[in-house]
Amino acid sequence: MKGLLFCGLIALASGAQATVVDDFMTGSYNSGGITSGTVNNWSTAASVFGGLRYSSLTVISNPLVGDAKCRVITTPGVLDVSTDTDVDINFTLGYGFANSSTTPASNQLNQNMMSMPIIDINFRTNDLAMPVTVTLFTNGGANSYSRSATIAAGIFSASPTSYQFDFSANAASLGDVDGIQIYFDPAASGDFSLNGVQAVPEPMSLTALSLGALVLLRRRKK
Q1: How far apart are CA 140 and CA 181, in angstroms?
Q2: How many Cβ atoms are within 10 Å of 119's Cβ, its own excluded?
Q3: Both 22 and 63 in a single domain?
Q4: What pLDDT, in 10s, does the model give residues 171-213?
Q5: Are 77 and 24 a contacting pair, CB within 8 Å?
Q6: Nearest Cα to Cα of residue 28 among 14, 9, 48, 2
Q7: Domain identity same for 206 and 124
Q8: Model-level pTM?
Q9: Which pick of 37, 130, 200, 211 has the fewest CB atoms within 10 Å?
Q10: Number of domains making up the chain
Q11: Which among 101, 171, 172, 183 has a CA at the least distance from the CA of 141?
């Protein structure tokens, strides 16, 4: 019986690892430069939750008539959002959404994220402080949970930085996650790029599983 329990703990500990939401290695895209309005895109990407990546780039103000653009560069796997001087934008990245950035009606993810309730976003670059909000939609979009953080300025490609949005407090409600939305609100002239998005386990849960496995292993050796 102890042997079965030990094997179960080892399996859980080894299985509780990061899951790729998007590594930007597929679904190349270039919005081209836009000076006003909104450009939406759906990119078929096999290495993405749900198989599709939704993006929406909106120009809020543009006093000097510059432009803004979004690109997904699949070699080496980067999402890049850039703006000219004083161009103010917002940008939304989505997985599992159908007709809009808030309706996962026909492309539901049906992902059980109870064991991986943390969304980890790896910023390759970010030049100005930027608020970011991550929202998880559950049960066909009937419920939603959001977390926000301000991304620090001065992130460079030589030293990328990860930010984690922790939904552990809602883990019991994440058995059917149907949509993930990430909303970026950079300052005017702000540029940023991402290396990837992951869903990761709660650190304490993983530690507890690992310690449990080690305790059983020591008892077996005695």
Answers
A1: 14
A2: 22
A3: yes
A4: 999 999 999 999 999 999 999 999 999 999 987 544 444 444 4
A5: yes
A6: 48
A7: no
A8: 0.85
A9: 37
A10: 2
A11: 101
